[in-house]
Amino acid sequence: MSAALKYDVVGVGNALVDVISHADDGFITRYELVKGSMTLVDTDRALFLYRALGTAVEMSGGSAANTMTGVASFGGTAAYIGKVSNDELGDVFGHDLRAVGVQFRPGRPDGETPTGRCIIVVTPDAERTMNTYLGVSSLLCTDDIHDETIAAGKVLYMEGYLYDRPEAKDAFRHAARVAHAHGRQVSLTLSDSFCVDRHRTDFRSLVTDEVDILFGNETELLSLYEVQSFDEAVALVQRDCHLAVITVGAEGCVIVSRDGVRPVPAVPVERVLDTTGAGDLFAAGFLFGYTRDLPLHECAKLGAIAAAEVISHVGPRPLVELKSLLS
Amino acid sequence: MSAALKYDVVGVGNALVDVISHADDGFITRYELVKGSMTLVDTDRALFLYRALGTAVEMSGGSAANTMTGVASFGGTAAYIGKVSNDELGDVFGHDLRAVGVQFRPGRPDGETPTGRCIIVVTPDAERTMNTYLGVSSLLCTDDIHDETIAAGKVLYMEGYLYDRPEAKDAFRHAARVAHAHGRQVSLTLSDSFCVDRHRTDFRSLVTDEVDILFGNETELLSLYEVQSFDEAVALVQRDCHLAVITVGAEGCVIVSRDGVRPVPAVPVERVLDTTGAGDLFAAGFLFGYTRDLPLHECAKLGAIAAAEVISHVGPRPLVELKSLLS
Description:
- Two copies of one chain form a homodimer.
- Chain A is α/β, with parallel strands linked by helices.
- Chain A has twelve helices and 14 strands.
- Chain A starts with 6 loop residues before the first strand and ends in a 16-residue tail after the last helix.
- The mean pLDDT of chain A is 95.
């Protein structure tokens, strides 16, 4: 028996507050950061980097959480599962989800571990380099997955970042099983090529076994299949997944389905200020369209609209109601 | 005997983290806010307003603290005295001062009272309406004034917002006496016409007795002297103060000194996005020039440059190094 549908999309991810600062390429070199990547750091390294950093701005982030706010901003319904602590940054995170109408399921409280944060260095080329102190978000486990919420969402959306932790992998598998048991679809974003690299075998079996819709970019897809050619990677993902949507930067994206491979162009942006959230918001637009049964290229177009909005300003979430951008 | 000079300017003020959100005029009406003003609120009201608010961004603020970051951003030296708590927002506040090279003297710790925050609603006309929960910043008292720091600054700069609390008034008087005892100058910004209105007698005696340089806008000056005519107010402040610099919105400012009254135009801005910090950064530019013995109209021009930068983006502090704007 299927539960009542309440949400277009239910997201599961690392609940993080972003600490965003600008720095030049010298900073990236000096502190041995890997430009464009996400690196997990411990408390000491996080404090060290934060001290080295210039003036910062705090904004709620977290990949899947950003995506859920995007779905809500288009006028869709969304819920989010991720762990925060009972501290100020946790309050900020919860507020910013609820403020846009996303149902927040923070999981069980876990003592004193603080809310996670992601130190984001934005370089003059608008690229973001992320150093994540996971904090309490790293304690997400199967017990935190609210089955009723998963069952009530048309599509489950999970971030590959979760795959850096065994308990979260279990939580992920559990959530996927609950979703499928209720006839829902399961989607995954690969999140980061280094993360894919660290957990390639698990990612591949997950994609084959559980994932109905795969999101990722070109680099992540090449890393997943350990191939050099995009065409080859596309052929492999077409074999493994019902649907894959692969972003290719300023060129837009490629939709890979049983029906074939179809490119959809990006929406041009006058000036790219900060690429943080580009993939997250692309997924938001796509899923908003998908849960409304729009043709796949229309879904991709919505994704492109949302991504264009978020890269044209600093911060990982839309600054305008995305539905106002629909003509 | 005079202490060694270490700072161009030493600021004293309410240490606050700004919680900035956009809303329309309907929000202002619905929650009975006074547009353009600063209102002190208690914890319950702060929580109530925060819950009502949309997605927010957290940035360090506090009027005098903003001014000190502006002085540092021009290449000057600055210190700041204000109270934060040992919590996450307190850490953010301290980080953002130190990150730009401002020496931070946080005063004595005070138990569990959290760091203060200012809920700022920015309306589509770029006007900001502020609701301040002072938190631990309201406990600033004479004991928190670090005399050595005051003695080491060419100019002491204090915000009128402090004048809402008797202990802070005492701290203010104490700081002014320390500064004068070391041959330093004392400056004050009137901060808010409603605040001036509440404490007019005290403000007037302070201006006459202790203030060498007065900052304020037209409305605040009219409120200080309870007159209707700007010329009349200017004549009165000329009698009471060595130097007053009165901003008149988009028109710029008027310098009032023993030598006469001189208007200096504002720097045009393509699009005003958020007026938060305009007065704070104007004072920063002016004081940076003043502590370098520039002619007063040059000081005002630096103020105008800094104000133009800060109103052209969201947030109360400069996003670029202000010295890069000097030709």
